[in-house]
Amino acid sequence: xxxxxxxxxxxxxxxxxxxxxxxxxxxxxxxxxxxxxEALADEISDSYDEYGDRCVSSIYIGGGTxxxxxxxxxxxxxxxxxxxxxxxxxxxxxxxxxxxxxxxDKLAAYRSFGINRLSIGLQSANDDELARIGRIHTRSGFExxxxxxxxxxxDNINIDLIFSLPGQDKDTYAGTLKYVLDLKPxxxxxxxxxLEEGTYLYEHSDEYEWPDEDEDRDMYHMSVxxxxxxxxxxxxxxxxxxxxxxxxxxxxxxxxxEYLGFGIGAASYAGGSRFRNTEVIEEYLRGVRCSESTRLxxxxxxxxxxxxxxxxxxxxxRSDFLDRFGKDMDEVYGHQISGCxxxxxxxxxxxxxxxxxxxxxISNYVFAKFI
Amino acid sequence: MDREHIxxxxxxxxxxxxxxxxxxxxxxxxxLLTSREMQEQVLDNMDLERERxxxxxxxxxxTVYKARNGExxxxxxxxxxxxxDFNYEVSRSLAACDGAILVVDAAQGIEAQxxxxxxxALDHDLDVFPVINKIDLPSADPDRVKDxxxxxxxxxxxxxxxxxxxxxxxxxxxxxxxxEKIPAPVGDPDAPLKALIFDSIYDSYKGVxxxxxxxxxxxxxxxxxxxxxxxACEEVVEVGFFGAGAFNPCEELSAGMVGYITASIKNVKMxxxxxxxxxxxRPCAEPLPGYKKVQSMVYCGMYPADGAKYPDLRDAxxxxxxxxxxxxxxxxxxxxxxxGFRCGFLGLLHLEIIQERLEREYNLDLVxxxxxxxxxxxxxxxxxxxxxxxxxxxxxNLIDYMEEPVVSAEIMVNGEFIGSIMQLxxxxxxxxxxxxYIESTRALLKYDLPLNxxxxxxxxxxxxxxxxxxxxxxxxxxxEKAQLVKLDILINREEVDALSFIVHADSAYERGRxxxxxxxxxxxRHLFEIxxxxxxxxxxxxxxxxxxxxxxxxxxxxxxxxxxxxxxxEKQKEGKKRMxxxxxxxxxxxxxxxxxxxxxx
Lengths: 371, 601
Description:
The complex is a heterodimer of chains A (371) and B (601).
Chain A: E1 5-11, H1 33-46, H2 48-51, E2 55-63, H3 71-84, E3 86-97, H4 104-112, E4 117-123, H5 127-132, H6 139-152, E5 157-163, H7 170-183, E6 187-192, H8 200-203, H9 213-229, E7 233-236, E8 239-241, H10 248-254, E9 258-262, E10 267-270, E11 273-277, H11 281-285, E12 290-295, H12 298-309, E13 316-317, H13 318-325, H14 329-342, E14 346-349, E15 352-355, H15 357-361, H16 363-368
Parallel strand pairs in A: 1-2, 1-9, 2-3, 3-4, 4-5, 5-6
Antiparallel strand pairs in A: 6-8, 7-8, 10-11, 11-12, 13-15, 14-15
Helix pairs in contact in A: 1-3, 4-6, 7-9
Chain B: E1 6-13, H1 19-29, H2 47-52, E2 60-66, E3 72-78, H3 87-95, E4 99-105, H4 112-123, E5 127-133, H5 142-152, H6 171-181, E6 194-203, E7 207-216, E8 218-220, E9 224-227, E10 233-235, E11 238-243, E12 246-250, E13 252-254, E14 258-262, E15 276-279, E16 298-304, H7 310-323, E17 328-334, E18 338-345, H8 348-361, E19 366-368, E20 372-373, E21 375-379, E22 384-387, E23 399-414, H9 418-427, E24 431-439, E25 442-450, H10 451-454, H11 458-465, E26 471-482, E27 484-491, E28 494-495, E29 501-504, H12 508-522, E30 530-536, E31 539-546, H13 562-577, E32 579-582, E33 585-588, H14 589-594
Parallel strand pairs in B: 1-3, 1-4, 4-5
Antiparallel strand pairs in B: 2-3, 6-7, 6-15, 7-14, 8-13, 9-10, 9-15, 11-12, 11-14, 16-18, 16-19, 16-20, 17-18, 21-22, 21-23, 23-25, 23-26, 24-25, 27-28, 27-29, 27-30, 30-31, 32-33
Helix pairs in contact in B: 1-6
């Protein structure tokens, strides 16, 4: 039986570019939205020949700012997806929403398309911090959106946070966490700020006060502690959920499941290859799709199994490795595993390997060993 | 052509006063080359030389000049290296000449190298006449410069040609002055062959090409020649003279001429600069005076960044040495850096040139250790060893005393900066000798300075403390007793041999502290805390600590873009490969180099 697919749809438009953001999105080309949505629909249709026989178990509309797009266009995308694919009845269907860009009508429309999960980008509940990173909403704007979503009946909501923001300290971050936990969302993502080359904050980094590495870790550990006490489990490095609300779409990425990405720059993994669409919107509008494709060797797949699986707090199981590759994990990675266990970065219990708290802090150091 | 119509001369100048440009103009004006054929600077034909704007190896060119008196003269223009590292080579080039053109910048006037070079020329009994260059500059003051030349050097300057080599102004006056003021060579063509080697290069087709000046006798194809100092004997294959950038064979070289000899010699070590070439069948009684075997003044360890490239480095050094008799190397092993070579150089510039050539021409990635001078270690048992690698320093209880090389330095500086330059010299353990005022605003400071205090960054410090105005020259003086100690660096309590160096006891703490600070920035955080310590004689004098790594996370893994994430991890892993393992600590190659530049701040 063919395995299920996850679908990702990329909406590369924003009202304005946030200062930390290096994702593929445009704040200055609203004129292209119509043509882009048509091209997206085309791409979804075109995928029928190769993947039309597959069932879809999750859809994620990300960006950019998907909520910036008129709801009819989003509806049209869903219509197209349903025309091409069978959706599992319990499919997880998420859309990213920016505070202030979705009113009750829009949210109600989302529900009518079958969208059952919202991901709202709050980033910080401190208005000064929000302004510093170039967010165009405030805490109260967020709260309106959140309440409207609950009123519309959304019962699976994620709130995105970033910590280690310029000018942030443990106290202000604790305030943000407390505020969010009081709202009782089902899921919280808390990402450590990453300065990416080419972003505004990267270019102007010396104009800001940045938390140092130690403060960053303190904030992270505080997240784990406070959310744990409130009933949220850290199931992945940056992701926390109440039981049963782990994001199934993201788990597909980490567990080596297959997914298709639609839209510019979107990444896919299917049929043993990783491929990726062009990042040039003009090309995409002309019908150009895939720009790079890599067929994974068995060694690549084993390495991904390890470093993606270890992102999750349940880690990787020896029996899964053996089932998938027909090889003993220790034969391939015995040296790395024993080194990490010795250094207190990994636990090896009941046939499962998972990161320790220290391992989470320096997970890249661990992952690089499996490359 | 008879000897009366030959002029053998060179150009001496301070750096940047226009020596190479004037040489180019002379070659142009004598018509051997069209302007189109001229490369920017014909005499400097190595890329590196052109980029740095300095002349590294001396070369010669023969041109023909039709003088105002209607007669044709052969000009042999011998170019001389312009850096103190190559002083001996300069002296041999000067010995091959009968006269010299002194070029002085019309705005800057006399500088330290002007004096050093002109005295060197006068020491070799050359007839020197001045030309004043860059008269096109708005700040040019030829009359003042003329007076300066007469006052300071004591040569007639009132009728010195006023020229602009850059704009080609006054060049013919220079050519006429060469004819009039530089004497024709003397010498007996019938006496036994006596020729001075002033340079030699290795050519893969012809073997070694000897550049020489014939003082007596003749040499032609078939002559069996002997190098009197090295004893090497070979039969001459070809003789000739130098076109611009070309070798033009001829029948015979005879007394008074400048040209080249090839004789299927395989290594420039056999044809050392300053040696005398004679006829093996009919040798001259005495060699020419002044021959010295050049000594390496500065040593450092050179290691391939990738240990597997060791044979490549060895081959490259072998090839470079074919052309550079002053480059020395010996294999050595470092615990930290593996297999490499201890290399000896004439000076820091020479070191940098070799390093760049290894990296550029041979595509090698190098790790070099801190350059040091040759110390003399007198042991209690009376034995003296010349120390080129700090790691070989005997135990303290076996050392009676140590000596370090000292140079006599001359620094030309404007009055307003005398104070700060004197302070610099004091900081570098200089011994004040004298101050001579050239004119009311400029002075010549004389100091004796330990060589190891000037090989790193003295020149830069000099420039920055005089806003670029001070100029500097030095020559080796001798060895002097000094209170020297070996400074060791410990990373995670392990001594790193490649980072040890010899330093004066008084500056050990300061240097040790700076090294620790620098290394702290270079060594990435590990899982554990890493102490970096400086020690003298086993006693720790400074410490910094690299804190344990607390964070190394890629928080976001967006939209399933695994490939990008993997690339980041691959890069991280690749970086690790380029590290050197010191015990359990991974040290980037750059760390070894960074400690060479402690005084940047």
